[in-house]
Design a protein that fits this description.
The complex is a heterodimer of chains A (77) and B (154). With 77 residues, chain A is mainly alpha-helical. Chain A has four helices and two strands. Chain B has four helices and nine strands. Classes of the chains: A mainly alpha (77), B alpha+beta (154).
Chain lengths: 77, 154
């Protein structure tokens, strides 16, 4: 789970695995993934008990950002 | 553990990270809530078993990582309004760090793993203020459903 200077750097990286291109996101999209209540609400005193409420928005955001890619689909099979 | 105990233990740990950049020990959990030391340790272990992106250093009672923070240095160095004392769990969690510091400018400094050259992202309340270079990308090689199988290596 790393940041790179560009998409070209990702693909040149020794750790890049062909076939996992779906795992590449722009910086803006990666930030969108981390901007639903699941991550925004971590300072709330009731964060853990209310975590289940945050799942739908997070799942939806992952699908939006990835264009419904199975790589980012958290829904049960 | 009762849900309110999970909430208050979680809130205490993440608040300590925000304040001092390092995790508390379980004895501090015990002191904070006025409970026996062993109860503090039990609370820590129960929270860490709650399938959150947090984990202990193997075979210890020491917090290794507590998203978005890391208790061991990583390549993701975090500064807040110019003060550096935090590390992010990973590149993705570094982007969630601004939610821990509302109203403050959070800077992520890291090397690119391909070339070793630096990259920098400034974020304020979830908005990118500056990114250098301008074409930074994120990469993970594991589908998200498999992340929880081995979080430290996802």
């Amino acid at each position: 789970m790393n940041l790179f200077r560009s998409k070209e750097h990702v693909k040149k990286w020794s750790g890049f695995k062909p076939g996992t291109e779906a795992g590449i996101l722009t910086l803006a999209d990666a930030l969108r993934v981390m901007s639903t209540p699941r991550h925004r609400n971590r300072l709330r005193p009731d964060y853990v008990s209310r975590l289940p409420e945050t799942v739908p928005a997070f799942v939806q955001r992952l699908l939006e950002v990835s264009g419904n890619s199975p790589f980012w689909d958290l829904r049960p099979d | 553990m009762a849900a309110d105990h999970l909430d208050e233990t979680y809130h205490f740990i993440i608040s300590v990270f925000v304040e001092r950049g390092q995790a508390p020990h379980f004895t501090e959990i015990a002191a904070r809530f006025g409970i026996p030391v062993e109860e503090g340790k039990r609370r820590l272990h129960e929270l860490m078993a709650a399938r959150l992106p947090n984990w202990l250093f193997p075979e210890t009672d020491l917090i290794a990582s507590f998203a978005p923070f890391n208790n061991l240095p990583t390549q993701y160095r975090i500064s807040v309004d110019g003060e550096h004392k935090w590390f992010a769990q990973c590149g993705l969690e570094s982007l969630a760090m601004s939610w821990m510091f509302p109203g403050k400018r959070v800077t992520v400094n890291a090397p690119c793993l391909d070339c070793g050259e630096p990259l920098r992202v400034d974020i304020l309340d979830g908005e990118i203020k500056q990114a250098d270079p301008g074409d930074i990308h994120f990469y993970v090689d594991l589908p998200i459903k498999k992340w929880y199988g081995n979080l430290p290596f996802a």
